[in-house]
Structure formats: structure tokens, C-alpha cells
Amino acid sequence: MSAQTMQKGTFSSDSDVHVTREDQSKINKFARLNAKLQDLQDEIKDKENLMKNLDDASDELLMVDDEEEPVPFMVADVFFHTPLEETKAKLETLKDELTRQMEELNSKGSRFKEEMALLKRDLYAKFGDNINLEPDED
């Protein structure tokens, strides 16, 4: 089994490597952090798509001809008709909140990556090519 075909956190059987309880704990922690990082990245992607939708909605509001006409504003599954300026303000508030959430998620992701880098360093130092902690290239 070559290093390229191994799954995350697997060992090659080419050499006899003793795995201590501490080593296994590090491997498990790395795997949990990796799973959390993947979930975070998915959540960030969802929020980026939502931000794109909010930007598109803001652009559409620029083309409104009658500023006195109420604009439909969707909250959950219900549309509310609100004045144009109020709708613009709500969109900006939503975009600001979404930006803050994305910054928090990115910060958390950075902390996960830092911790994973330390674990990778320790594990590769001990196991070398006998362990693969790199993401699969699908």
C-alpha cells in the first residue's frame, strides 16, 4: 500500500511501529479536528452563498423605480412588505452579521489548523512515512 493510497490517519504495514496510548490520542485528536474543520469549511461555504444572495438582493434594490412602493422582504417562509429604505437597512444589517459570523468561523478554522499542524509535526516526527495525515485528493 503506497503513501498516496492510504486514508487519513492510517499506517503503512511496511515496518513495525509501536503506537502508544499518547500517540493514538494524538491521532484521534487530529481526526476529530479534521472533521470539525471540514464541517466549518462547509458552513463557511454556505454563508458565502448566502452573502452572495444578499449582495444580489441589494443590487436588485438599486433597480427599484418607485421608492414609495413597499418591497417584499422574506423572513423564514413569510414575505413582509417594507419600505425600500427599511429593506436596504435590514439587508445591510444581515450582511454585517453574516460577515461577523464568517470572521468567527475563519478564526476558529485557523485555530484548528494551527493545532493540527502541531499534531502533524509530532506524529510525522515519530512515524515518518508510516502515517498519512494529508487530505485525500478526490
UniProtKB/TrEMBL annotation:
Keyword Chaperone: yes
CDD domains per record: Prefoldin_4
GO molecular function terms listed in the Swiss-Prot or TrEMBL record: unfolded protein binding
Ranges where the record places region Disordered: 1-22
Assembly behavior: Heterohexamer of two PFD-alpha type and four PFD-beta type subunits.
Annotated function: Binds specifically to cytosolic chaperonin (c-CPN) and transfers target proteins to it. Binds to nascent polypeptide chain and promotes folding in an environment in which there are many competing pathways for nonnative proteins.
UniProt protein name: Prefoldin subunit 4
Organism: Amphibalanus amphitrite
